[in-house]
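Field: sequence (string)
Field: structure_tokens (string)

Example rows 1 and 2, in order.
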Amino acid sequence: PTLDTWTITETHRSYLNWLIKRISSLDTRGIWSADRLPQIKLEDVYISLHAREEQFPSVSPRDAFTKEPASQAPLLSLSDIVIQHDHLMILGEPGSGKTTLLHHLALKHALALLNPGEDSNIGAARFPILLRIADYVEHGMHQGKSLNEFLAYDCRRHASPTPTSALSDLL
């Protein structure tokens, strides 16, 4: 839901603050260091990814992957592309920035919802619910949990202060 279609409650604010705290710094657990690494703020190091929409001429299925695009569309930041579309699928190799992009977008939207007067350059602010598909497969789907049930479990697992019933209506 966008900001203008519902009211943010204190419970929603609690969740947004928890989410901001959880994703505003990079996870450095996988980086080996003899010293403790400092917290690295996502906003300090985030580099916007870019893409272009490609229009392919009608071709037979056999030629679909060998034809070149009909024209070169302008290069756009992925944040701008997200503003233009309600649904996107982000694909990429491991380490290409998919998770970082989603954290960046979730952070921007959470901040915009908490500070509606500031220009966040993200279009209509949407309520971010960040769930990892791999976690759902491992801890939810194989146990027969619905997405709502998994959301409740995942929030508890990550120590969210928000009662999950306050979020399930947003799915």
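Row 2 begins here:
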Amino acid sequence: GIIAVSGEKAAVFLQGQLSNDIYAIKHGSYQWSAYCNLKGRVRALLRVWPSENGYCVLLPRSILAQTLTVLRQYGRFSKITLEDKSADYLISGFVGSMPEERHRLTRIQLLILPDTNVPRFICVESNPFPTSNVGADRSEDPNAPQGDLAQWQALDIRAGIPEIVPQTIEL
């Protein structure tokens, strides 16, 4: 899912909450960041990138609500807005080469994953049907390409990309 962080203090807020230097993220790229509790235990691993109104944060849907709740507890003291924008975006993963029609889209964020052997991309694009459930679950979109999530997760493991799920929060 995607959390949008907007407002005049979005960068300051994220800089204080996440593990990496938010100010070092360049437009067109993303950064891995950890969101930790006060003891330093990881609550979530996030992909963060600048957006038109602040920042977008990509994380597993299974921990989005819990992460958003905790972030909002601290965000209410800042001049920011934190929103679940998952329904506003379509998130697709591509293994190998990116389909040519995706290259032509102008309103996408392309996240290139750091695999050494297999090129992989995460494409985040505006959902043309944001009020429908299509953005919430691509499997309901009959035109969406379907793939094997287990294969994607195996490639994550092979590339050394960790994932925090509800069972591993703060371990």
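free_text_note (row 2): Helices lie at 10-17, 61-75, 100-103, 149-159.
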